[in-house]
């Protein structure tokens, strides 16, 4: 039985980095915003991921006072190469009008910083959503919180609950790959250089983080299981195999694996509900676009909602929500096509493709406009399409 009713203008389901970003971006407005998460607050403490953040994301987080400079490691160069094939390229921040090509931050540090900006009474943690029902003039969210059934009477529900399961509105492209993540140290340190190495198993990224690297190694699922089962010394040997003698790995910690698929939701808007972040699109991590794209979702939705409020209109106004969905089209399509293209081209060891990759890397090295295109995407995200 429903025991109490809470009123809110906007209910955000999912207090991950994207949901929290939206809550902070709406903080200056007059709306009452509630965040609901099924996990306890701070549950991200064990998340082993590190995220590459674009310079554009840094600027948005700074505007929200959620940029933790101490937790961020700058990427000043990116070295791209392939194992067993020719071609390489080096992208250097000095060639561009930006202090860094991007930054690397642990998921948990990002989440801590965003969480610190929220009011405690805005967050219902360890809370399960039992039903959502749109009705005339509003939407009801039934939840169980602290063992109590509650009803939240709201005007808009924002879904930010991360990667969706198989649902009718979600198209799934299973890459049949897993990302093995770990933190490693090397004898020579990183000198703020990230490496993207294309191997016969899949892309291997080394992202500078603190005094070592965060690695993301994309491999077939069976190999992911084997890599996780290795002891540390054998795991470092497996990494050494991918780089030859160029890298002397000395230690590793925090190993985990994530299954990889492209999941795209359409439509993004339906009767007083809107989907953002991974709940709207989950991308392969190869080009480090997922959170950067989700951050822009949150930012643009906050702008549209602020404008709706300014007009003293209903935040669930279907025309404003449709405008949001239309506005996100180019950025979403561009980011998905860019990421999916890299996965397809670089997750295959057929000889002609290896040749094509080598030529592609040479073209990047020799053709400044092409390199600028790729680099601008990394630094600025959406603005690179415009
Ligand atoms: C290995 C790996 C590396 C990556 N590297 C990068 C990178 O370098 N750069 C980048 O930009 N992106 C990267 N990503 C993608 C990035 O992690 C995601 O895009 C980002 O975490 C999405 O944030 P989110 O808040 O939408 O979802 P999530 O981070 O998944 O958060 C969702 C939140 O919703 C809550 N939740 C879930 N279900 C419910 C429910 N039913 N009810 C209530 N709450 C619920 C969860 O507890 C969680 O707190 C990477 C991903 C992986 C797997």
Task: Present the secondary structure layout.
Elements: E1 4-7, E2 10-13, H1 17-25, E3 33-36, E4 50-53, H2 55-63, E5 73-75, E6 77-82, E7 88-92, E8 102-106, H3 107-116, E9 123-124, E10 127-135, E11 138-145, E12 148-154, E13 156-159, E14 170-186, E15 193-198, E16 203-209, E17 212-219, H4 221-229, H5 232-243, E18 249-265, E19 269-270, E20 273-275, E21 281-282, H6 290-310, H7 318-327, H8 329-346, H9 351-366, H10 368-380
Parallel strand pairs: 1-12, 2-3, 2-13, 3-9, 6-15, 13-20
Antiparallel strand pairs: 4-8, 5-8, 6-7, 10-11, 11-12, 14-17, 14-18, 15-16, 16-17, 18-21, 19-20
What do you see in this structure?
By secondary structure, the protein is of the alpha/beta class. It is built from ten helices and 21 strands. The strands form four sheets. Strands 7-6-15-16-17-14-18-21 form an eight-stranded mixed sheet, sandwiched between helices. Strands 9-3-2-13-20-19 form a six-stranded mixed sheet. Strands 1-12-11-10 form a four-stranded mixed sheet, with no helix packed on it. A hairpin with a 2-residue loop joins strand 19 and strand 20. The model has no long low-confidence stretch (mean pLDDT 89). The structure holds flavin-adenine dinucleotide. The site of flavin-adenine dinucleotide has 33 residues, from helix 1, strand 4, strand 14 and helix 6.
